């Protein structure tokens, strides 16, 4: 990469795929759907980059270059693997498990992705690791629990958490951990933000990973994960595991991920725009706000100024992401809402980061693998509904969701639909559907110009 190109924005860098070279000069990286590569010599030949796709593939190399741009590291420190959970498995096996004579201690959050919780529970049950859960978004509680351990080998962080949207102070936590023990591996699941919004390597963490199934690919037509190591030494340890077990991402999925990355910037911007409009509408118009009669009725989104950690999140992130959640205060009403046949745009499914919008009930879906008693202990709301915004017209998303709310007997429309009455907490609000919709391109660029022209004409007429 030239010094000039290093000054380009992330959006531009991801659109430009300059690493591939093929004999026909293709403008799009070719797909090397090949298991093996012919050897030119039986001697050790440094120029022979590939021999077997399990160990490396030209298409995989290109996508690792693109992720390297996103995180500002050399492509040799990036690995594309078969899923987000594969990332965590490789990281734990590569740099945590078996690296000491004793059973390693892992500290993890108490609001985790269900798959992460399942893997950690599996390791703990077989005495492969001592897993300690703590609210990593509560700095004083985290530091207290950390200091109670004889030794901590790894800290696993997520921010914001999913689906409670709590914010962990990644820079401050990493500084604390590294002062206590420089050898403790700080690992960050950055799927909720993606490298477009946050780069935890800047805070001194050791390894970042993302489920590339989500924002990075953005179309939910592949499963993939990416791992980014802080140093070449850590990268080598991770590569040994990947090459040994053969979990590198397939060439076709790498090719699709390269394509998806090109539109990450525009997709994520529109998704965050939609999430911001929806969150404000849910809070002000629909009454899902903690200022109501029941403090549990609230909209959770780090992009809202009412979020208690709004300023903290904004201090080290470029955006709020596009995942939000809200609580109705009633498990049955939430279940009826998510199951409503009125939902025509919102797809009832797990996952997030897709171009189309998704709705789910975590306790019955993505977090169902977490024991109900554990969810209760961690104060996980059983009635919580998660929204993962896509790129559709936001007014259409609002109308679709509103229809399901009416069908589920959560809200009632009054005054011809201009007023929304929340039947669960008595909140009355103006229906602001349509406010915040992306304007027509002519209006956006020339609307103000026309206004100025009309003012100028009126002033001339007065003269």
Automatic annotation (TrEMBL):
Q: Which GO terms describe its cellular component?
A: cytoplasm
GO biological process terms on file: 'de novo' L-methionine biosynthetic process; transsulfuration
One GO term in the molecular function aspect is: pyridoxal phosphate binding
Q: Which UniProt keywords apply?
A: Amino-acid biosynthesis, Lyase, Methionine biosynthesis, Pyridoxal phosphate
Name what cofactor the protein needs. pyridoxal 5'-phosphate
Quote the InterPro entries the UniProt record gives. Answer: Cys/Met-Metab_PyrdxlP-dep_enz, Cys_b_lyase_euk, Cys_met_metab_PP, PyrdxlP-dep_Trfase, PyrdxlP-dep_Trfase_major, PyrdxlP-dep_Trfase_small
Origin superkingdom: Eukaryota
Which positions does the record annotate as the modified residue N6-(pyridoxal phosphate)lysine?
214
**Metabolic or biological pathway, per its Swiss-Prot or TrEMBL entry:** Amino-acid biosynthesis; L-methionine biosynthesis via de novo pathway; L-homocysteine from L-cystathionine: step 1/1
So what does this thing catalyse?
Answer: L,L-cystathionine + H2O = L-homocysteine + pyruvate + NH4(+); an S-substituted L-cysteine + H2O = a thiol + pyruvate + NH4(+)
Could you say which EC number(s) this protein's record lists? 4.4.1.13
Q: Which family does it belong to?
A: Belongs to the trans-sulfuration enzymes family.
> Under what name is this protein listed?
Cystathionine beta-lyase
Q: Which organism is it from?
A: Lachancea fermentati
Q: What is the lineage of its organism?
A: Eukaryota, Fungi, Dikarya, Ascomycota, Saccharomycotina
């Amino acid at each position: 990469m030239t010094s000039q190109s290093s000054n380009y924005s992330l959006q531009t860098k991801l659109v430009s795929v300059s690493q591939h070279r093929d004999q026909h000069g293709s403008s799009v990286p070719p797909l090397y759907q090949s298991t093996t590569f012919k050897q030119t010599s039986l001697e050790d030949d440094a120029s022979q980059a590939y021999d077997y796709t399990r160990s490396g593939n030209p298409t995989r190399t290109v996508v690792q270059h693109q992720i390297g741009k996103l995180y500002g590291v050399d492509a040799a420190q990036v690995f594309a693997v078969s899923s987000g959970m594969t990332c965590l498995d490789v990281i734990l096996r590569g740099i945590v498990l078996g690296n000491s004579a004793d059973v390693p201690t892992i500290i993890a959050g108490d609001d985790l992705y269900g798959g992460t919780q399942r893997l950690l529970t599996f390791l703990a049950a077989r005495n492969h690791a001592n897993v300690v859960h703590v609210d990593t978004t509560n700095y004083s509680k985290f530091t207290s629990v950390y200091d109670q351990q004889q030794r901590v080998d790894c800290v696993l962080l997520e921010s914001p958490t999913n689906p409670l949207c709590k914010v962990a102070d990644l820079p401050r936590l990493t500084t604390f951990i590294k002062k206590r023990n420089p050898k403790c591996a700080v690992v960050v699941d950055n799927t909720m933000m993606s490298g477009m919004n946050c780069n935890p390597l800047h805070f001194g963490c050791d390894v970042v990973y993302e489920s590339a199934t989500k924002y990075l690919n953005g179309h939910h037509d592949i499963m993939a994960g990416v791992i980014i190591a802080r140093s070449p030494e850590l990268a080598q340890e991770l590569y040994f595991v990947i090459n040994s077990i053969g979990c590198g991402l397939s060439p076709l999925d790498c090719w699709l991920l390269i394509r998806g990355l090109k539109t990450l910037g525009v997709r994520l911007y529109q998704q965050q725009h939609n999430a911001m409009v929806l969150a404000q509408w849910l809070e002000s118009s629909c009454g899902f706000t903690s200022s109501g009669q029941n403090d549990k009725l609230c909209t959770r989104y780090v992009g809202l100024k009412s979020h208690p950690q709004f300023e903290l999140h904004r201090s080290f992130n470029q955006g709020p992401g596009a995942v939000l959640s809200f609580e109705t205060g009633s498990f049955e009403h939430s279940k009826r809402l998510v199951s409503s046949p009125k939902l025509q745009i919102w797809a009832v499914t797990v996952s997030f980061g897709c171009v189309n919008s998704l709705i789910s009930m975590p306790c019955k879906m993505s977090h169902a693998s977490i024991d109900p008693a554990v969810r209760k202990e961690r104060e996980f709301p059983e009635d919580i509904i998660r929204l993962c915004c896509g790129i559709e017209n936001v007014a259409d998303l609002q109308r679709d969701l509103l229809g399901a709310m009416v069908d589920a007997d959560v809200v009632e429309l009054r005054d011809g639909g201009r007023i929304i009455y929340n039947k669960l907490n008595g909140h009355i609000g103006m229906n602001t559907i349509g406010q915040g919709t992306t304007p027509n391109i002519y209006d956006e660029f020339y609307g103000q110009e026309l206004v100025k022209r009309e003012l100028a004409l009126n002033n001339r007429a007065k003269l």
